[in-house]
Amino acid sequence: MTDAHVTVREELLGCVGCGIRENQGTVAVIDLPVFKEEDYAYDFLEPEKVAVKYYKDSFDSKVTFPVASYELSKAFANNGQELARLEEFISRSLEIKGAELKEVLIEGFASPEGKAEYNQSLAEGRTLALSNYISGKYPGLKKAATYRTVGAGEDWEGLKKLVGISPLSNKEKLLSIIDRYPTDTERESAIRNLDNGRTYGILLKEFYPQLRRTTFRFSFDVRAYTQEELPEIFATRPECLSSHEMYQLSEIYLMRGENPLPVFQKAYEQFPEDVVVTLNYANALLKYGKKADSALRVLNDVKNDSRALFPMAIAYHIKGDWRKAEELLKEAYKQGDDRARAFYGENAYE
């Protein structure tokens, strides 16, 4: 209750028949907060349940080949270690509980030096060689509904990304060249001529090796998990859980007497665009973490949703700004939030 005041009425009574004199006036203006900590109410919303989830994962392999060769050698360069990393990724992917492999896409890229046609052929041959090696060790990969190998050729997009995050002083010129010239030959020629070849030398040594790569992309259909399976999956493959399964897991945490905030946080990290997940995470930050500033940052992304008003009011009240809290409560009431009705409904005082 903001801007309340106290009025004092004074009556002076004399003897019988002497009459009455009255004085009345406002002696103080005070602020009395309506909203208190015991009024905090948290509305956790149940996300929509899904029967099957779509999950995908990818791995960039830096297996290398001798110059102008398609022959894959485990003993060449750092291939032994790189193939071990790739095999670990594939093994782990194929062991996902309740997952059915639907698509395998293997794309090979080349660095953009030399003739584009030759690099395209080189990328195709090397991609096929690596595909044959891997499918020989993991024949189950070819049981996927879709199995594709693609020689993607010169990786100009990859180069743009590397240059964009680099400390190169002339990176804007480089990016302009890549965007401005329509053909690979024109681009490479312009880059070679930049500052007498100094930049091109840096690209050859530090950037181009990162572009000679093969990307493995897997897509799966993942069945819904039972409640008994949820803790194990959360500990090992949380990315395979739906937002609804995360919500179910939070209830399991509560029944166990554990703080469910880490579950709500992981759900938010995986589904940042989901309004329900965002609201739940904000409420969890307030209820289980008392983290008002963090909750307000999260709620800022959904501030136009009326369901965000009440938790925002709680956050500002925690911060000590009860005027802002009550302003939000009033707006929540206007937009039909039942929790605010107790303060600004027909039978409430203003």
Write the layout of secondary structure elements.
Layout: E1 4-13, E2 20-30, E3 52-61, H1 79-94, E4 99-110, H2 116-137, E5 146-154, H3 156-164, H4 171-180, H5 184-192, H6 198-211, E6 214-223, H7 230-236, H8 243-256, H9 261-270, H10 275-289, H11 292-299, H12 309-318, H13 322-334, H14 338-344
Parallel strand pairs: 4-5
Antiparallel strand pairs: 1-2, 3-6, 4-6
Helix pairs in contact: 3-4, 8-9, 9-10, 10-11, 11-12, 12-13, 13-14
Describe the structure.
The protein has 350 residues and is of the alpha+beta class. Among the domains are: 4-34, no CATH class; 52-219, 60s Ribosomal Protein L30, Chain: A, CATH 3.30.1330.60. The chain has 14 helices and 6 strands. A 4-stranded mixed sheet has the order 3-6-4-5. A two-stranded antiparallel sheet has the order 1-2. Strand 1 (4-13) and strand 2 (20-30) form a beta hairpin. Helix 3 runs antiparallel to helix 4 (171-180), helix 9 packs antiparallel against helix 10 and helix 13 packs across helix 14. The longest helix has 22 residues, at 116-137.
